[in-house]
C-alpha cells in the first residue's frame, strides 16, 4: 500500500490523439503535524518548489507560504552533515511524540516533501557561470558499487546504501528518490559505463524496496563482503603454511560451505514513497533497457527522468523525443517527474508527453538575473498582462522585463498590473523601487522578485491544467508561441547596470580599505556581499573566543564588502 | 514652532527617570520607549514591510544621505515620498545626512554655509546645507526629521566643540526657516556640546527656546568612555523639557538601552541588531549566539525560548547553523529575530514602567545577560546608582 496517492482526473474533453497530457492530484496520507492543520497536495501538471539548503531561495517560511505550491524538493547533499547519519542519535526523540523528521527540521510539515540525493535541477548548461552554486553539480569522481558521491557544503562525501537507508529512516520525507548511479553522460560515454549505471541503479532500487518493507535488502552485499574477508584471511594464513598444510587446508575449505549470512530484521518505512531514477542516456538501447526494467518494479511509486542528461548531448527537440521514448515504457498511472525542463514552452511540450512534475528553477533563475516575468498562458491573462505584452516590441522579451534596466527607475507601477503576488498586490512595490533595491544591493530585491516570479509560474501551471482539462492546450500553446516566442538562451552574463554597480562598490571598497572605521561605519552600504565575505572566513569554530569588539570589527568589514 | 505630534506620558517610574508614553505621529501611534530599526536605503535588510509590521514595529529610520543619492530627490518627489516608495505605511524618521559627514571629516570641509564633502561613491563634490537637508527630508516626507547639526567626534576637545555647538544652534534656525511642511513633519533639534556639561547646558537652553516638537542628544556613541557617555545623557534628560520626546541617537546595545531608558530617554536607533544578524549572530536575553559556530549543529532549541518570531517558531539553532551567512534566508531570519528581540526588550521595559516594577526588571535583565555580578559593566552600575538602583547589591528587588 503506497503512502502516496496519485489520482489522474478523468478528462472531460477529448484530448487530441497526439497528446498524453493529463491532470492529476498527488497527495500523501501521512497525518499532518507541527502545528499545521492541513497538508497541501500537488495538482499536476505542477511543481515541487526548488530549494537551496532546505529553504526556497530568498523566501522565509512565512513569505514562502503565500505561494500555493503543494510541495518542495530538497537535495540531500545540501543538508546532510558530514557526521550524519552517525550523529542522528543527537536528534530529538521523545517516546510519546512522533519522530523528529526532516519535515520538522526544515519546517515543511504541511508540504509534500520530496528528497533527492543531489541537486539535479541545477544544471551548468542553464545556470550562470558566475553563480555561487555553479559548482554544485560539477563533475565528481565516478560512483562505485559501494557508494555514490555527494557534493555537500563541507565538501565531497560518500554515501553508501547503508547510510542512505539510515537517512531515510531518520528523515522520513513523503517521497525519496532511490539511490541511483547518475552519471554525466557525454557523446563519448562508453556503452559499458552507461549499462553499469543502469545495473547499479536497478540493484540499489531492488534493495531499497526490500528494505522499505522491513526485509533484509543488504544480505547479498554482506555475503559478498564476508566472502571477500574470508578469502583475505585465508590468503594471510597460507603465507605462513607449509605446502602440505596448504593442501590440507584447501581440501577442508572445499568441503565446508561458503560463509553463511543471517538475515537481519530491519525497521520498515512504508510511509515513505519511493521514486526511481530512470536513466535517460542518449544511447537508445540503454535508455529503453532502463525504462523497461524500472517499470517492472511494482513497489516504485513514481519515476524521475533527468532531461539535463539528454540536453548535454542532444538539442532540445531530440532530447524531448528521447524523453518521450523513455516515458513510453513507463506505467501511465504513476507520476513522472522531470528535471531540466523549465521554460514555459518546454514545459508545455513535456506536459504533452505526459510529464506530471517539474520544479521552480525557472522563476529562481529569472530572479537571480533581476528579471520579472510578464508572460501569461491561456485564460490566465489579466488585462494588465495583455497590455504589458503588447507594449513590448520583441516577442522574445515579452515574457519578462529586466529590472536592472534604467528605464524602470522612474516607473511607479507594479511589475504587472493586476498581479496578486506579494510584490505587486495593491501596487505596494513598484518597478522603480525594485530597480532601486537592485542598484543599492539590497536583499529585498530578490525577495520581491522571487515572490512575483514564483507566483506567476504557479499561475502558469494552473492555466496549463485548465487547458489540459478543456483540451485546448495545443491551441493555447500556439498562441503562447506567437506572443512570447522562445526563451532566449541564458548566458549567465551580468546586466550592464549590475556590472557598473558592482564595479563602483569594488572601487569604493578599495578607497575605504585604508579609511577610519568610523568612515566605513557612516557610509554603510548594501550588504548583499556580506554573505560571501562571511563565507570566505568561515571557520566558525575559531569564533569561540569572540568578544563584542571582534563582532564590531566584523561589522565594519561587512560594510566594506 | 509648529508640531505634528502629540506626546502623552502614561506612567513614570517611581525610582528612576524612566517613563512610558504614547507618541502620536502622522502615520500612527508609537509606544515609547521605542527602538527604531534602521532601514538605511528604504528597506530593512531583506525583511518585507509586512514582516516589519508583524513584529509590531511602529517607526523605522531611513538615511537622508543614502536616499538623496538613490533614488534621489526628483524621484522621491515624483512618487510622493519614502513611505509610498517603500510600501511602508507606518512612521519614518530621517537623519539629516550630517552623521555621515562627521565620519567623512577627512574628506569634508565645514563652513558656516554647510558641509562640503567628496562623495565616497564617485568622488564628486557635494554641499550639504541646512536648507538642502530640509529640502531633501521634506521630499522624503518622514514623520520626524532631524536638523542638520555640526557634529564633532565625542573625542574632540577644545574650542572646536563650542564652535560646533553654536553653529548647530544657528543651523537649527536655518532648518526651522527652511522646513516647508511643519504641519505633517516634525523637526527635532539635536543637542550638541561634546562631553562638556556647560556647553550642553547652554545648547539646551538655546534650543528649548526654539520649541521644536522633540529633542535628540547628539554627538555621542563615537567611542567615548561609557562613564562619560551616561553622564552626558543623564545631564541632558535633567535639563530637557519633560513634555517632549527625547531621542538618543545611535544607541542599540541591550544594556545601553536599559540604562538610557532609566536615565529618561524615550527613543533609540541602531544598525547593530540587523547588521550583526548578517554575520549569523542572534541576540537573546542571555547573550549573543554566534550561530555559525559548530556547537549549534546539533542544538535543537529555538534561538530563544518564548520568542514568537518566524525564525524561532519555525526553526532550531541546528538548522539556522546550516543557513546562517550561507543563504539570504538565513540573514533574513536572524535579522527578523534580532529586530523582534529589540522590540520585545522595549515592550518589556515599557510594561514594567507602567506597572512600576522597572527596577525589578533591571535587576533581572542584568542577571540574565551577565549572570555574575562581577561581569556587570561598571559604567552601567554607576549610571543606575545615579537614579537610585544598585544592581550590584544582592537581590535588592524581589
Give descriptors for this structure.
heterodimer, A: 561 residues, alpha/beta, TIM Barrel, 3 domains, 3-stranded antiparallel beta sheet, 20 helices, globular, disordered C terminus, B: 398 residues, 8-stranded parallel beta sheet, 42% helix
Tell me about this structure.
Chain B: Pfam families: TGT (PF01702). Chain B: Its EC number is 2.4.2.64. Chain B: Its cofactor is Zn(2+). Chain B: The active site is at residues 95, 269. Chain B: It is found in: Cytoplasm. The complex is a heterodimer of chains A (561) and B (398). Mean pLDDT of chain A is 84; it is low at 125-138, 518-552 and 554-561. Chain A has 561 residues and is α/β, with parallel strands linked by helices. In chain A, the strands form 4 sheets. Chain A has an 8-stranded parallel β-sheet with strand order 12-11-10-9-6-5-4-13. Chain A is 41% helix and 12% strand. Helix content of chain B is 42%, strand content 18%. Chain B contains 15 helices and 16 strands. In chain B, the strands form 4 sheets. Chain B has an 8-stranded parallel β-sheet. In chain B, helix 8 (226-239) packs parallel to helix 15. The radius of gyration of chain B is 21 Å and the shape is globular. The model of chain B has no long low-confidence stretch (mean pLDDT 94). At the A-B interface, helix 1, helix 14, helix 15, helix 17 and helix 18 of A face helix 1, helix 2, helix 4, helix 10 and helix 11 of B.
What's the layout of helices and strands?
The complex is a heterodimer of chains A (561) and B (398).
Chain A: E1 4-8, E2 24-28, E3 42-44, E4 46-50, H1 61-64, E5 71-75, H2 76-79, H3 102-105, E6 112-116, E7 147-152, E8 155-160, H4 161-171, E9 175-177, H5 191-212, H6 219-239, H7 243-255, E10 273-278, H8 284-296, E11 302-306, H9 307-311, H10 316-327, E12 336-339, H11 344-352, E13 357-359, H12 361-368, E14 371-373, H13 383-391, E15 400-402, H14 431-439, H15 444-470, H16 473-484, H17 496-513, H18 517-523, H19 530-536, H20 548-560
Parallel strand pairs in A: 4-5, 4-13, 5-6, 6-9, 9-10, 10-11, 11-12
Antiparallel strand pairs in A: 1-2, 2-3, 7-8, 14-15
Helix pairs in contact in A: 5-8, 8-10, 12-15, 14-15, 18-20
Chain B: E1 6-12, E2 19-25, E3 28-32, E4 34-37, H1 49-54, E5 59-62, H2 64-79, H3 82-86, E6 91-94, H4 98-103, E7 108-110, E8 115-118, E9 125-128, H5 130-140, E10 144-146, H6 159-178, E11 186-191, H7 197-210, E12 214-217, H8 226-239, E13 246-248, H9 254-262, E14 267-270, H10 272-277, E15 281-284, E16 287-290, H11 310-314, H12 317-323, H13 328-354, H14 358-370, H15 378-386
Parallel strand pairs in B: 4-14, 5-6, 6-10, 10-11, 11-12, 12-13, 13-14
Antiparallel strand pairs in B: 1-2, 2-3, 7-8, 8-9, 15-16
Helix pairs in contact in B: 2-5, 5-6, 6-7, 7-8, 8-15, 9-13, 13-14
Main location (chain A): cytoplasm
Biased composition (Basic and acidic residues) (chain A): 231-242, 549-561
Subunit structure (chain A): Heterodimer of a catalytic subunit and an accessory subunit.
Amino acid at each position: 500500500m503506497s503512502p502516496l496517492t496519485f489520482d489522474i482526473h478523468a478528462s472531460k474533453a477529448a484530448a487530441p490523439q497526439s497528446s498524453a497530457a493529463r491532470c492529476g492530484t498527488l497527495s500523501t496520507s501521512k497525518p499532518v503535524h507541527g502545528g499545521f492543520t492541513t497538508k497541501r497536495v500537488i495538482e499536476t501538471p505542477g511543481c515541487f518548489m526548488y530549494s537551496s539548503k532546505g529553504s526556497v531561495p530568498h523566501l522565509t517560511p512565512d513569505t514562502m507560504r503565500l505561494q500555493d505550491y503543494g510541495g518542495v524538493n530538497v537535495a540531500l547533499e545540501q543538508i546532510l552533515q558530514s557526521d550524519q547519519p552517525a550523529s542522528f542519535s543527537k536528534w530529538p526523540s521523545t517516546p510519546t511524540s512522533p519522530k523528529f523528521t526532516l519535515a520538522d527540521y526544515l519546517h515543511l510539515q504541511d508540504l509534500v516533501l520530496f528528497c533527492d540525493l543531489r541537486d539535479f535541477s541545477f544544471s551548468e548548461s542553464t545556470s550562470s557561470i558566475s553563480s555561487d552554486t555553479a559548482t554544485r553539480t560539477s563533475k565528481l569522481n565516478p560512483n562505485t558499487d559501494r557508494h555514490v558521491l555527494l557534493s555537500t557544503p563541507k565538501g565531497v562525501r560518500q554515501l553508501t546504501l547503508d547510510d542512505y537507508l539510515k537517512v531515510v529512516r531518520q528523515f522520513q520525507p513523503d517521497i525519496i528518490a532511490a539511490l541511483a548511479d547518475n552519471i554525466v553522460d557525454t557523446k563519448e560515454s562508453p556503452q559499458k559505463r552507461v549499462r553499469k549505471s543502469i545495473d547499479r541503479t536497478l540493484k540499489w532500487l531492488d534493495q531499497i524496496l526490500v528494505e522499505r518493507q522491513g526485509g533484509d535488502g543488504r544480505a547479498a552485499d554482506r555475503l559478498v563482503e564476508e566472502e571477500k574477508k574470508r578469502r583475505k584471511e585465508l590468503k594471510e594464513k597460507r603465507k605462513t603454511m607449509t605446502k602440505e598444510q596448504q593442501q590440507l587446508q584447501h581440501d577442508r575449505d572445499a568441503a565446508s560451505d561458503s560463509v553463511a549470512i543471517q538475515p537481519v530484521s530491519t525497521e520498515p518505512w512504508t510511509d515513505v514513497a519511493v521514486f526511481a531514477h530512470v536513466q535517460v542516456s542518449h544511447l537508445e538501447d540503454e535508455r529503453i533497457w532502463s525504462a523497461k526494467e524500472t517499470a517492472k518494479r511494482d513497489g516504485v511509486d513514481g519515476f524521475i527522468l533527468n532531461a539535463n542528461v539528454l540536453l548535454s548531448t542532444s538539442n532540445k527537440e531530440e532530447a524531448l523525443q528521447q524523453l518521450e521514448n523513455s516515458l513510453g515504457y513507463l506505467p501511465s498511472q504513476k507520476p513522472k517527474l522531470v528535471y531540466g525542463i523549465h521554460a514555459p514552452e518546454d514545459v508545455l511540450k513535456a506536459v504533452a508527453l505526459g510529464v506530471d512534475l517539474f520544479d521552480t528553477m525557472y522563476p529562481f533563475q529569472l530572479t537571480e538575473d533581476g528579471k520579472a516575468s510578464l508572460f501569461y498562458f491561456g485564460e490566465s491573462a489579466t488585462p494588465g498582462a495583455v497590455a504589458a505584452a503588447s507594449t513590448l516590441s520583441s516577442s522574445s522579451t515579452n515574457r519578462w522585463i529586466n529590472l536592472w534596466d534604467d528605464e524602470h527607475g522612474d516607473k511607479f507601477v507594479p511589475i504587472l498590473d493586476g498581479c496578486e503576488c506579494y510584490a505587486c498586490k495593491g501596487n505596494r512595490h513598484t518597478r522603480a523601487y525594485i530597480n532601486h533595491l537592485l542598484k543599492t544591493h539590497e536583499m529585498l530585491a530578490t525577495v520581491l522578485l522571487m515572490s512575483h516570479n514564483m507566483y506567476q509560474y504557479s499561475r502558469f501551471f494552473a492555466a496549463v491544467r485548465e487547458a489540459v482539462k478543456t483540451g485546448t492546450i495545443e491551441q493555447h500553446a500556439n498562441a503562447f508561441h506567437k506572443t512570447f516566442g522562445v526563451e532566449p538562451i541564458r548566458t549567465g552574463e551580468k546586466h550592464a547596470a549590475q556590472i557598473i554597480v558592482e564595479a563602483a562598490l569594488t572601487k569604493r571598497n578599495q578607497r575605504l580599505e585604508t579609511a577610519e572605521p568610523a568612515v566605513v561605519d557612516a557610509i554603510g552600504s548594501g550588504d548583499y556581499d556580506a554573505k560571501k565575505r562571511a563565507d570566505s572566513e568561515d571557520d566558525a569554530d575559531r569564533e569561540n573566543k569572540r568578544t563584542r569588539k571582534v563582532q564590531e570589527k566584523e561589522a565594519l568589514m561587512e560594510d566594506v564588502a | 514652532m509648529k508640531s505634528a505630534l502629540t506626546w502623552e506620558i502614561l506612567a513614570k517610574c517611581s525610582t528612576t527617570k524612566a517613563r512610558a508614553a504614547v507618541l502620536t505621529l502622522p502615520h500612527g501611534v508609537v509606544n515609547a520607549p521605542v527602538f527604531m530599526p534602521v532601514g538605511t536605503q528604504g528597506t530593512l535588510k531583506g525583511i518585507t514591510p509586512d514582516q516589519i509590521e508583524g513584529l509590531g514595529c511602529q517607526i523605522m529610520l531611513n538615511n537622508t544621505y543614502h536616499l538623496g543619492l538613490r533614488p534621489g530627490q526628483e524621484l522621491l518627489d515624483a512618487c510622493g515620498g519614502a513611505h509610498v516608495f517603500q510600501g511602508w505605511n507606518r512612521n519614518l524618521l530621517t537623519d539629516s545626512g550630517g552623521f555621515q559627514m562627521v565620519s567623512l571629516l577627512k574628506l569634508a570641509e565645514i563652513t558656516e554655509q554647510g558641509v562640503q564633502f567628496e562623495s565616497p561613491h564617485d568622488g564628486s563634490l557635494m554641499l550639504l546645507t541646512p536648507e538642502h537637508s530640509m529640502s531633501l527630508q521634506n521630499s522624503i516626507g518622514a514623520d520626524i526629521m532631524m536638523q542638520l547639526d555640526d557634529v564633532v567626534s565625542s573625542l574632540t576637545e577644545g574650542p572646536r566643540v563650542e564652535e560646533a555647538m553654536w553653529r548647530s544652534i544657528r543651523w537649527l534656525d536655518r532648518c526651522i526657516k527652511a522646513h516647508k511642511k511643519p504641519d505633517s513633519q516634525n523637526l527635532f533639534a539635536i543637542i550638541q556640546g561634546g562631553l562638556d556639561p556647560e556647553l550642553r547646558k547652554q545648547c539646551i537652553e538655546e534650543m528649548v527656546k526654539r520649541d521644536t516638537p522633540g529633542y535628540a542628544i547628539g554627538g555621542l556613541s563615537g567611542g567615548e568612555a561609557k562613564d562619560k557617555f551616561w553622564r552626558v545623557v543623564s545631564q541632558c534628560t535633567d535639563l530637557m523639557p519633560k513634555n517632549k520626546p527625547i531621542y538618543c541617537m545611535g544607541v542599540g546595545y541591550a544594556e545601553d538601552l536599559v540604562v538610557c531608558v532609566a536615565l529618561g530617554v524615550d527613543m533609540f536607533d541602531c544598525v547593530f541588531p540587523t547588521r550583526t544578524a548578517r554575520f549569523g549572530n542572534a541576540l537573546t536575553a542571555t547573550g549573543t549566539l554566534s550561530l555559525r559556530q559548530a556547537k549549534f549543529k546539533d542544538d535543537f532549541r529555538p534561538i530563544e525560548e518564548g520568542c514568537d518570531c518566524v525564525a524561532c517558531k519555525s526553526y532550531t539553532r541546528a538548522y539556522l547553523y546550516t543557513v546562517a551567512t550561507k543563504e539570504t534566508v538565513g540573514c533574513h531570519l536572524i535579522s527578523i529575530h534580532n529586530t523582534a528581540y529589540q522590540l520585545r526588550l522595549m515592550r518589556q521595559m515599557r510594561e514594567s514602567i507602567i506597572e512600576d516594577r522597572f527596577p525589578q526588571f533591571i535587576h533581572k535583565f542584568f542577571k540574565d545577560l551577565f549572570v555574575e555580578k562581577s561581569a556587570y559593566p561598571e559604567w552601567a552600575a554607576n549610571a543606575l546608582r545615579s537614579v537610585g538602583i544598585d544592581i550590584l547589591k544582592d537581590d535588592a528587588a524581589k
